[in-house]
Amino acid sequence: MADDPYLWPGTTVLVNAFDIRDADELRHVEDELAGTVLALLDAVELPDEYGRDLLCKIHSTVFGLVYPWAGQLRTVGIEKGDGGGFTPPEHLEEALDAFEHELAAAPVGQPRAAFVRLLAGLYRDLNHVHPFREGNGRAQRAFWDLWCHEEGWHVDWAAVTKEENDAACRLGDRGDLRPLVAMFDRVLGPDSRPGPHATQE
Asked: In what helix (H) or strand (E) does residue 27 lie, and over which residues does it extend?
């Protein structure tokens, strides 16, 4: 990672607005600020269309106080925990175009079982893109919260561990969506403010 422009030279710490050079301190500050902004995201004016503009706006809003590159597509490759890679930076635009088309074509008003399968596939596809240098998980969860709400559903992310999510995504990348389907089947429930298209069966 010596040539990673997102890191302070000679460290593994991301360049940040607070000139923090300690990874644990940065993680604490990032978690505190991002958590506060996420809790207030409903008050932010966001793009109406579900796609890259909304995802980038969420990311820039949540992480903009910490990282100067928040909301911008990454310019370096990043690896998964199993040594594989997410979408290379030179293919991010193409991958996001494909995701936007996939999302726009998704049927609305699906019964719960069908919606769980649909969400699992879309979640896998966006997660594989991983468009930002850091903060992908939190930005994506906020994105899916908004999308699910429109369909009348709520995801209990607190009931999903990092280990479960990462393992399910790894298998999803290999073509096995069953763990992601099982994960969302366990944590998806009716939203207290049902969306206009929900068919909660």
From this structure: helix 23-39
Tokens read off for 40: 């207030």
In the chain, the amino acid numbered 137 is G
Look at residue 8 and tell me if it is in a domain: no
Question: What's the chain's average pLDDT?
Answer: 93
Distances (CA, A) of 152 to 15, 67, 155: 39, 33, 10
pTM (whole model) above 0.90: yes
Compute the distance between CA of residue 188 and CA of residue 157 in angstroms, rounded to an integer.
Answer: 9
Nearest in space to 143 (alpha carbons), one of 28, 132, 95: 132
Q: Which residues face 119 on adjacent strands?
A: none
Which structural domain range is residue 113 located in? 48-190
In DSSP terms, 7 is beta-bridged to 14
- Residue 31's CB is within 10 A of a number of other CB atoms, namely 12
